[in-house]
TrEMBL record:
Family: Belongs to the universal stress protein A family.
Entry protein name: Universal stress protein
Domain of life: Bacteria
Chain positions covered by the region annotation Disordered: 182-201
UspA domain: residues covered: 10-133, 143-277
Pfam families named among the record's database cross-references: Usp (PF00582)
Source organism (scientific name): Streptomyces coryli
Organism placement in taxonomy: Bacteria, Bacillati, Actinomycetota, Actinomycetes, Kitasatosporales
UniProt xrefs under InterPro entries: Rossmann-like_a/b/a_fold (IPR014729), Universal_stress_UspA (IPR006015), UspA (IPR006016)
Gene3D superfamilies in the record: HUPs
Amino acid sequence: MAAEQRTPALVVGVDDTRASLDAVHWAVAEAGRQGLPVRLLHASVPAPSANGHRAELALAERLVATAAALDPGVEVFTELAPYDPVTALLQASREAFALVIAAHGHRGLTGPLPGQVSRAVAARADCPVVVVRGARTAGTGPRRIAVGVGEAEESRAALEFAFRLAAADDATVEAVRAWPRQGRAEPRHRTCAPSAPAPWETRARTTLDTALRTATRRHQQVPVRRITAAGPARDVLLLAASAADLLVVGAHRRAPDLGCLNHALLQHASCPVAVVPG
């Protein structure tokens, strides 16, 4: 008899801090919209003593009760993992719909530097990683999901994730593409051509339209706002995040780390940030 296939869950890295509770709130709200279960994951190394184990079980019971109160229709279960946080979360990412981690404040999940674990996991996870940060962790009214758009192929997974979330509750996707300010030099590798190259803004709009083609065809009911803006990608995306409920960006899995842009967004965005492997 074939083994029963489990529905992928939203996996939340938890401890007993307020930041962790914000992550639980975000995950339960999203799980309710997506029809997904929530798995609360607490990692502990070394293995706790008997008293420590009882404390962890009590924490798990409190978090389950909190999640049930937020949305009784969401299935919530817990796991105590005898691994370091990065290992536990990366293992969970193999089967999860997404990982949800608070940006700061986790005694059990951040290691020696604030945000160290969230950055390490976002750079290496097999699924999207949502880092819950900023004041806009649970906005009211129609949601706005901003997504940074690079080249068409690079942005496909990030766009699909953003549209999947938006389709569940009539949220608007704001597709954002930055272009260099007027006066910057053209790329060194430009080839000679008989006609002048298209303006940067026109190129940005063309790239945006090309990247959006598949996602808009698949999710025709999702409202889309196209945004092209002059300036560094970091500044343009942080501005978009200031008015959004979620910022979605892609990540190269062949790269050894997140890169400067995504690193800056995880540090400074004023809303949760989803890093989607491509």
